[in-house]
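Sequence, please.
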């Protein structure tokens, strides 16, 4: 079952602006709205932070971040408590990122995946639904517990 036709946040660095444009058209064609966080900042961590924070605050259910490899965006987004980002380059990992891990941010590398594969990955990611209470629930709960434990020690 496809997620509700919610607004998807998207942002990138200048390296990925062309892929972002392709994905915006593709996602909008499927009936989703897009909130574009831009592509002008060469410091990808700035965009990742803004998007990840918006997701963690509940303004968006899911978001997509793009840079050259997807890795820098992933690292930066995961610094925000409540943001759970993964870089995906294949269909199976993409599907499992939601179904088994309940991630809320997909990162892609414009120098790693071409437009057609990126569209396929996004389709799978938007289609997938987390199996709440399923066999991965205890694993996901432990991730949340670790985050909470760490935040307590940082206060």
């Amino acid at each position: 079952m496809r997620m509700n036709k919610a607004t998807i946040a998207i942002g990138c660095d200048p390296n990925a602006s062309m892929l972002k444009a392709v994905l915006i058209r593709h996602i909008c064609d499927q009936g989703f709205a897009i909130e574009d966080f831009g592509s002008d900042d060469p410091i990808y961590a700035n965009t990742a932070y803004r998007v990840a924070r918006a997701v963690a605050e509940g303004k968006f259910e899911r978001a997509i971040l793009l840079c050259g490899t997807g890795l820098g965006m992933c690292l930066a987004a995961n610094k925000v408590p409540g943001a759970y980002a993964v870089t995906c380059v294949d269909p199976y990992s993409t599907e499992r990122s939601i179904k088994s891990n309940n991630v809320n941010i997909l990162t892609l590398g414009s120098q790693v995946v071409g437009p057609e594969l990126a569209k396929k990955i996004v389709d799978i990611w938007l289609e997938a639904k987390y199996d709440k209470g399923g066999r991965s629930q205890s694993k996901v709960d432990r991730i949340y517990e670790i985050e909470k434990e760490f935040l307590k020690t940082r206060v």
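The two ends are 40 Å apart (CA to CA).
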